[in-house]
Amino acid sequence: MRTVAAVCALQLLCNARLSFGLVLSAPSGRKRRKSGSSTKWIACSSTTEVARAITKYVHEGDAVAELGAQLRESSIALSDAVGPDGRAVLVDIERKFPNEKKGEDRTLAMRREGDERGFYPDRATFVETKGFEFWRDALFFRGEARPQYDALVVDMSTVAGNDLELTCIALVREFLALNNGDGESDNPCRAVIVKSGSLQNLARRLYHAQRVISGAQTLDNRHAGGRSLIIGAVGVKQYRETIPFVVREGDVCIEVGCHLGTTATLIDEAAKGGDPVSGGCLGVDVGSSIIKAARKKYPHLSFEVGDGFRTGSLARMRTAYFGVHTANRSTYDVVYVDIGGLSGSEGLLESVALLASIDHSLEPRCIVIKSLCVRRLASCLVPFSDVWKEDRLSRQ
Hints:
Blueprint: H1 2-13, E1 40-44, H2 47-57, E2 63-67, H3 73-82, E3 87-93, H4 104-107, E4 124-129, H5 135-139, E5 151-155, H6 156-160, H7 165-179, E6 191-195, H8 197-205, E7 206-208, H9 209-214, E8 229-233, H10 235-241, H11 243-246, E9 252-256, H12 262-272, E10 280-285, H13 288-297, E11 302-305, H14 311-322, E12 334-337, H15 348-362, E13 366-370, H16 372-380, E14 381-383, H17 384-395
Parallel strand pairs: 1-6, 1-14, 2-3, 2-5, 3-4, 5-6, 7-8, 8-13, 9-10, 9-12, 10-11, 12-13
């Protein structure tokens, strides 16, 4: 999984330079908006949701961009939203046009040859690139002055050929960095609206630890699609404070990156409750000397040397240490992760790749990861279905 994440990151961080000879300028007389809060990542599951999100987040006079533009519903909604004083750069890759004689209903949402001619000429610029990797040039490297955008719309399947979760995350992060030289903290981009089923599923499963601890969010598996819930925590204190909200009596748990075993002991106590033979926690760390020290400090607890990225070996440890005494089909009920290199602000792609591997291999009910980059993602990634629901309730 580390190799996959690294390849995705390298592909998306490699800048090709082409000149399209087109310049996007900010609408005259309007100051660029600077936001003190992070840009919202709005994950949509359909074109209808994308159009609704555009109506909510895109304002008249905005400078906006669309990747995977088919000059259909979302492109029209975007161009209508910015109005004649706004600017829209609509980007798509070179593609074969659909055969209208074969299944016209199926191809109605696909771009046709010549559609760009006369498409909102007062505010929209259509750019066709030779491939997905040239999106940077289409949006940022077409003139002496680098433009800035108030919003971005992305259709991952259309522009990349598939709904690629890691590729999507890497694209959004690089776009935000290019949109402002100082990164995301002071970025004019109000929202990134992404049509991606995989990103929307992640958004529905991802929780901010402090919101769970404070009661602002309640863990809910009903909309997880059978996948693991994920909690992003920062610092040892917050990481441990999630235990009462996650671990149930009788749970079989594992902590990956257990260090000297203090957190694993707290998880073990919560899982066993008043029954010393029911549930528990296995502590795993890659350092043999660390595991030796943990066994000495907490002799009543089980510890094992292991690599958190080798999820197959973690699955085999479950049978070795816990047998098959639970009826749960998952390998572990709860997985805690505290791995060096993933706990800071970098390593998001590696973290998401590892979380996906744990989710699919060990099938826990919940994963708690001590990671600033994952908690930041939990702060900004929002499923549009939740936004739409809240808006409807507020109007009642």
